[in-house]
Amino acid sequence: MKGMIISNPKSGTSETMLGEVIGTIESHYDEIIIKKTLAEGDASRFAEESGSFDHLIVIGGDGTLHEVVNGLMKLPRDKRPVIGLIPGGTCNDFARALELPIEPSRAAKVINMLREKRVDVIKIGDRYALNFIGVGLIADTSRQIDPNEKETLGSIGYFLATIRQFREADPFYIKLSRRDDVLFEGEVSFLYVGNGSYLGTVPTKLETQSFSDGLLEVVHSSAIGFPMIRQLLAQQLGLDQSSTEWAHIQTDELVVELKQPQIIDVDGEHFETERMSIQLDKEALTFLTP
User: pTM (2 decimals)?
Assistant: First the structure.
């Protein structure tokens, strides 16, 4: 077999970690090519060049994985290599959804098991995502994270940013539709469209959430205030809340319309728009899992 490794040194990947990973997995491969990212876009470009490889090993965080997915989705389905993921970032949300060990050397041993699992991929226009799309409070929070807090406090930094954002959050108008059906129209404090099961290292706690069922989890809410902050401080915030202020649906596609452009968070990357057409590409990628 042939393997390509994409490693992002900026995510905390050291030469020692890279050496440990190679030493753990090398017996399975006749050839291993190592590609190190130096700038934004490198991981996507390397992934797009991986069509002749059996496995693509990604060493990095959610941002690196996001780039890799967008590169792989440019390849024909039958040319996309199987992905082995070695968590190397702060949150590693999709690695958690796959139930991978967060410790890199243990994650490398999972690759040796050669157990494959197909996963769905979210398509937003010409963009792709594995984990989630966030609008409103979710997107605002990720943009407000202090880089020092992210590095030193990890997921707690996300909690602190969310608490700060509660003081400034304003409801916004949104219209959600599926084909010819209007699913919701009104003001919300946030919109979450998910495929994975973690958000900032916190489980979403949606009982129906699955990354291979062909369905998106859509949650929106007008709730805001002290009760939510109290749950957050206890690290118990989930999206499956038993309240009339929260709404949860499942759908295979969704059109999101806003009265004015909003910042959209797609797996931690941001862009601005007032309309999104979202589909789910069922079982579009394959990962090595425990």
Answer: 0.86
Tokens of 108: 């490398």
Report the helix count and the strand count for the chain, using DSSP H and E. 9, 16
- Overall CATH class of domain 2-114: alpha beta
Q: What is the pLDDT of residues 133-142, one digit of tens each?
A: 999 877 766 5
Domain locations along the chain: 2-114, 128-282
- Rounded to whole angstroms, the Cα distance separating 102 from 115 reads 18
Point out the catalytic residue in the list 269, 272, 274, 283. Answer: 269
Cα angle 206-241-118, degrees, rounded to a multiple of 5: 10
Is 99 assigned a catalytic role?
no
Reply yes or no on domain 128-282 having CATH 3.40.50.300: no
Give me the phi and psi of 206, to 5 degrees please. Answer: -85, 115
Confidence of residue 205 (pLDDT cuts 50, 70, 90): confident
Nearest C-alpha neighbor of 198 from the set 155, 166, 260, 143: 155
